[in-house]
Amino acid sequence: MTDPALAAARADAGALPSFGPRWAGIKKLAEGGMAEVFLVRDTATAPQRLCVIKRILPGMAKNPDYTRMFHDEARIASMMTHPNVVKVFETGRSPQGPFIVMEYLAGQDLHDVVIRARRKGLFLPWDFAVGLLCEAAEGIGYAHQLTGPDGKPLQIVHRDLTPSNLFVTWDGVVKVLDFGIARAEHRLAKTQAGMVKGKAQYLAPEQITGRPLDGRVDQFALAVVLYQLLAGRPMFDQDNELACLHAILEGVRPRVRDRRDDVPAAIDEVISRATRVDPAERFPSMKEFRDALLALLGVAVTREDLSSRLRELFAGEFEAHAELMGRLATAGTEELRTLYDRAHPPEGGEAGSNARTELIAEPRRAPRPPRLKLVGATIAGLVLLAGLGAAVTRRGPAAAPEGLITLRSDPPGAAVSLDGKATTWSTPVVLDHLPLGTHRLRLTHPERGPYERDVTLSAAEPAPMLDVMLPPQPGPLSLRMEPTNARVRVDGAELVLKGGEGALAELAAGRHRIVVEAEDHAPRTIDAEITAGETTELEVSLDELGGPEAPPPAKAPPPSGE
Fold it and tell me: Nearest Cα to 86, choosing from 213, 156, 177?
């Protein structure tokens, strides 16, 4: 007798569309008014990676307006390369229409972060909320400043920033999602007159009244999101959409400190300025808005801080996610579906039973449940909220155990080589489907020196998270010494020189203490500044011990060769 669940899974697998031989379909994640999204595996990469494919609905593919909007989204998103913006790898076309291939993310969107805290009767720590918004502002500010190939500003404005469009990964990176209705100069599909784009609660006054828009629209929305993270309820919590729009235009804003008194008063001042009715009274740019938020923190909130607090708030989900990743290659379809359901419980439930809340602040007043009046559907938010999804496969022979490496670098954007082979990836990145054992990583960056290290994956530690500070670019050191067989130490470590006259070595850019010493000679210590890409020349002559006293020469003559 056929297992009904397995039969249903096979039927689902057969219903998945084909995007070409490179993309192995795993699961349909979501469907909205214009597009649908799928979890796929990229079989052309080594190791294979999970991706998300978004395609226009087959019934919409023949509508030129929808097609232009879809191409707009793909074109705008593919221009952006920033750690805080969801990455578009490429675009393609199947017999059913165009599609976009995006990076896969695992974590939670900020809507679920607010909901989880509210269900626990807790407020989020204010520095955690501000840290999240600073990361989001970094990505949006990048989009605002983006220029085209001709050097002219693209004038990108997101226009739809909501908690559902801001996603925080398990390793503490905030990603801005869904530029589907973004406004950009020279975009193909123009917004029709009278159409209001965005969710009602987060619309800036100029969006409602139809006035010209710029990046301060996104500043308004981010400030509204920050209020919601801190207060546990929306800033504009009226009973209907029309009343909500009126409240936005009236300019009366609630204060976070009316809900809780553990936050600095300066937070309300920043939110108040960023949500002024007149855009001219807001911060001049997203950078100034972010700088004002950073000034509130005093001590920077790191991604490690954001990650640890997210994992504590969603402890069960994170453990279920890690289990799913560890067993993705070997589990059968039914087991994967069970693991997926545990990692992504339905609304009202929580994965696991050991969620901890030590780092979540107790509220001063219990927040009442907000009445959310969101309008429309956010496809990218649904895609990435879905997380890994369940693989629809038949159980085959047991595969070798696998692990993964979460890799970030400062600065980001370093090219990654794995086990001596170049990849198409750059940091930050998750290297998954790696066999257990030792792997050699090499990072290269146009503005920094290379970095290499061995990483061992084991059954006890199958998924390490690495943060790499890339070293400064090296600079050549040319060193002439007398005697020529003198030994050299740099910053306490012996330096190996290439032999011959004018011996050379590569040192990291910056200041170094160089000690030159030889038997029967007095040592010399030199503080040298090494400049990246420039040869630093030093000539050192050591005084013989017991010889005639004389000041050491400032420069030794070149060896005579005798």
Answer: 177
What's the predicted TM-score (pTM) here?
0.60
Domain holding 490, by residue range, is 474-541
Non-local CB neighbours of 63 within 8 Å, separated by 6+ positions: none
- How much is the pLDDT for 219? 97
Amino acid 516 reads V
Question: Does 266 lie in the same domain as 246?
Answer: yes
**Which residue's structure tokens are 């974590």?**
107
Q: Which residues contact 53 (CB under 8 A, 6 or more apart)?
A: 19, 23, 37, 38, 40, 99, 100, 101, 102
| DSSP bridge partners of 551 | none
Rounded to whole angstroms, the Cα distance separating 516 from 495 reads 10
Residue numbers of the chain with a pLDDT score lower than 70 = 1-14, 33, 46-48, 180-198, 324-325, 327-341, 346-400, 428, 430, 432, 498-502, 547-562
Task: Assess whether 69 and 183 both reside in one domain.
Answer: no
Only one residue has tokens 């879905």, namely 386
pLDDT value at residue 182: 55
- Looking at 50, 80, 104, the residue that finishes a domain is 104
Is residue 26 domain-shared with residue 98, that is, in the same domain? yes
